[in-house]
Amino acid sequence: SQTIHQWPATLVQPVGSPLSLECTVEGTSNPNLYWYRQAAGRGLQLLFYSVGIGQISSEVPQNLSASRPQDRQFILSSKKLLLSDSGFYLCAWSEDRITNTGELFFGEGSRLTVL
Amino acid sequence: EDQVTQSPEALRLQEGESSSLNCSYTVSGLRGLFWYRQDPGKGPEFLFTLYSAGEEKEKERLKATLTKKESFLHITAPKPEDSATYLCAVQGLFSGGYNKLIFGAGTRLAVHP
Fold first, then answer.
1. Under DSSP, is residue A115 helix (H, G, I), strand (E, B) or coil?
2. Of A100, A107, A108, the CB nearest to B99
3. pLDDT in tens, A64-95
């Protein structure tokens, strides 16, 4: 069966410091990978998605970047964190289907607090 | 622009008191509508996918239905363990070569003994 791991679960960082959140998927190959951010009282906002190694698309301009160095590894980064980067970050995967329909499967999330 | 609105924002029920959550959507051609359950501090857990109007899916005390403009998540005789935030999301036909889902803000359900 497929599993998704995301870490760290909780992170408290000062403004201006770097960030690295990691996500790995097991039990599947060539998944589509996603980074979402969830703000309190608001829907999940798609930040980045990737359909393959080295292929990253950004949905919104921001202080963050993403990379996919391996097929089942997705990394969310920042060189200098802003207060507004605080939030709950979720990694997700979906099967790479021709029709691209189907559900997303989410990791446990990473709570980032920028002080 | 694709949009999802969920109501109510919060719902408090007594154990055994059945109710429904609403998800209204606007999308340029529906490819799929998804329901998720999210516990506090956790990632969303997939519940159902609905593809066409008139379709229904069931899982234990939950039943999801779909019309051309909205979806309902019916909760029959809920138990305290059904307490969670329920998220609705849609995928449009023109979402591109990946599963771009548009999420609603969710309904926070609290079931009290």
1. coil
2. A100
3. 999 999 999 999 999 999 999 999 999 999 88
**Cα separations in angstroms, A82 against A9, A21, A36, B13, B106:** 19, 15, 17, 39, 27
8 Å CB contact between A32 and A93: yes
Neighbouring residues of A47: CB distance < 8 A, sequence distance ≥ 6: A35, A36, A37, A58, A59, A60, A62, A64, A66, A76
**Looking at residue B95, what is its pLDDT?**
64
B22-35 mean pLDDT: 92
DSSP string, B79-95: -GGG-EEEEEEEEETTS
Give the other-Cβ count within 10 Å of A91's Cβ: 29
Rounded-to-integer distance, Cα A71 and Cα A51, Å: 9
d(CA A10, CA A55): 27
Banded model confidence at residue A98, pLDDT cuts 50, 70, 90: low
Q: Which residues of A touch B (CB under 8 A)?
A: 6, 32, 34, 41-44, 46, 49, 51, 57, 90, 92, 94, 100-109, 111
Average pLDDT for A55-65: 86
